[in-house]
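User: Predict the complex.
Assistant: Input components as received:
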Amino acid sequence: MADTVLFEFLHTEMVAELWAHDPDPGPGVSAGLRGEETGATKGQKMSLSVLEGMGFRVGQALGERLPRETLAFREELDVLKFLCKDLWVAVFQKQMDSLRTNHQGTYVLQDNSFPLLLPMASGLQYLEEAPKFLAFTCGLLRGALYTLGIESVVTASVAALPVCKFQVVIPKS
Amino acid sequence: MADTVLFEFLHTEMVAELWAHDPDPGPGVSAGLRGEETGATKGQKMSLSVLEGMGFRVGQALGERLPRETLAFREELDVLKFLCKDLWVAVFQKQMDSLRTNHQGTYVLQDNSFPLLLPMASGLQYLEEAPKFLAFTCGLLRGALYTLGIESVVTASVAALPVCKFQVVIPKS
């Protein structure tokens, strides 16, 4: 049991520590690579970017360690399914709840009960606090994808806690 | 498998991030509450202290969550045994290798193959780097002890990688 909570406790501490130097909360509810649209302060954008970078490197490392049934995935969609199932179970002990795609390189991964948001009371009043709890995981997805040979842009959004949507955009190469 | 490596990857990233702002390594090989004797710079002492604090809070939280066979431990030594066995297994998937005491409030917990030091090559050349990989765990022990009703001072030392000794001193109240 402690494995799961250990990761969650550590993640909480990491967010708190990075935020300690810039405690003013921004009004945005998006997290990810770019913080322009969130209205976050410069320090907060830096913290989001640091968290995203940490997530990226952990995702890269996990991507290398996770057992893969097939060494080569046939299609992009197979890779995304792998993340929704295997990566999510490895990190959060649950699968992603849904995966949708426009078949043009955009994927929306939805977790109806995202563990890193669960400690926050549901409702609207804490929505502003959500971005800092999503940046690491955006990086985690981007890093795992990178290890599997796919460059992407990953952002997250929350409309109502603890439901969370991760949007993965894979530019046409 | 990923649970273990997830914690270790995240710990590595956390240490790297906190050190990024003060990359100059100090010559010391002790970590813990006090950094005076290590020759660490002011920024490094701050980073050690931040890591120790994060470990303390995670240890406190884990101490509350770990199942205890007996709600009240009879003796101090029982609490220390609990940490060596249950806490260590929960965090590192292994037990501490030995526990010694002078029966006057000082305990030495030895891990012959401390997981957070394993990624470093063994030998003497990396000894200087060791303190930053021990501070979090010093805090973890102190936090778990605190939850169990014992105030302590925890320090760590490394004579040869990856063997690590944690010294717990419990002042007479």
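The first strand of chain A starts at residue 30 and ends at 32.
Let me know if you want any component modeled separately.
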